[in-house]
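Let's study a protein:

___
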Amino acid sequence: MYEKLTAFPEDFLWGGATAANQLEGAYLEGGKGLTTVDLIPIGDHRLNIALGNLDSYKPKEGEFYPSHEAIDFYHRYKEDIALFAEMGFKCFRLSIAWARIFPNGDDAEPNDAGLKFYDDVFDELLKHNIEPVVTICHFDVPVHLVEIYGGWKNRKMIGFFEKYAKTLFIRYKGKVKYWMTFNEINMLLHLPYIGAGIVLQEGEDKQQVLYQAAHHELIASGLAVKACHEIIPGAQIGCMLAAGTVYPYSPNPEDVWKAMEEDRNSFFFIDIQSKGAYPGYTKRFFRENGIQIEMKPEDADILMQNTVDFIGFSYYASRCTSTDPEILKNSTEGNVFGSVKNPYLQVSEWGWGIDPKGLRITCNQLHDRYGKPLFIVENGLGATDVLLENDTVDDDYRIKYLNSHFAEMAEAIQDGVEILGYTSWGPIDLVSAGSGEMKKRYGYIYVDRNNDGTGSLRRVRKSSFHWYKDVIANNGAQYF
């Protein structure tokens, strides 16, 4: 007899997700060193630096760097965590700024002031019964490692990262149970400076450089998984994918194959982190493109013996592709990845396709492929919110977006997909990773800050704040 599920799992982790470089600010306080994201300005040069086409080793006059102050979580974390607790958060995803712990990345000893800051943040979260979910590296490589070693081009980065990860596990083993190694690891291929601290030099073979760097990150991830399991028995450590299934524009087999290939460009990373070996399609791609990955004899065992416990992923939009040059002209945006405009979808203010069903499809696709628990660690709607005279923000459009995605998440659970939790992106307004803007807001909490850095930084509850509070209090029962 068919038995319909009636609720999200009792221990489902509702919460929100952030990154150190987008909310902390205090970019050189407490002994912190410079990171790559500290050197990506808002404005004309942002994309070229993020792509690795321009070097950026120190702040330049005349540029504005949004991450330097961000929303000042560094000084306001108690206030912000109290607001998360008021919403009923079960967990809070945050990242640790590598350069707060090792200012240069290759330091002999960690920076105690940086370690203490995260101790204090974790203690505050745990005081409110909020489980920390920690990303070890979220797009912020210490700049010293880029300037001296070339970032993740260099195999020495593996040792620096392993030392950093072990330092975190030892220090926070009594406070953090959920970890992820690299945020959106597949972004390395699309935004090399953000994803891996890579500045591409004239004459370099871009594909060779990027896939060699990917190998280094994958080995480092495997060694972090090994260390986590050894140092914190019972902890769970996952990978993290910028996800969103790719649809063929038509049933033309060529379009279907191209969609599969575009999916595989990202799945390759997670196939290795979850299954423990390079897939055959990647080996063929390397052969046909003259890519030769330098590996050490122990690398294969590191990958095979240290696979992740769960698959973390971001989902903002599905994508669509075609082999027809005319159709390809009609493209739209979507979390860095370009996409043919899907005629069946509405788009956000920033041109991203709004596809709740795509979340269910992506969940099933990842579950079928890996057979491991999933964790939806980013999802949300960026919009230009307006603070009204009555000191609120009527963001019903955000509620509508999230409501439709929660309904499809519930359907995925009915399908048999195991989902550990859901952390919406930017539960409090923060700096956009893509554009550096503040006006592209995701939060349930409005922050009075503008693109040029002006504003009081005052926090204000939006309509969605109260709505999400009710969803969590009911454990999403309305969706079953």
User: Anything to note?
Assistant: Residues 13-479 form a domain with the TIM Barrel fold (CATH 3.20.20.80).
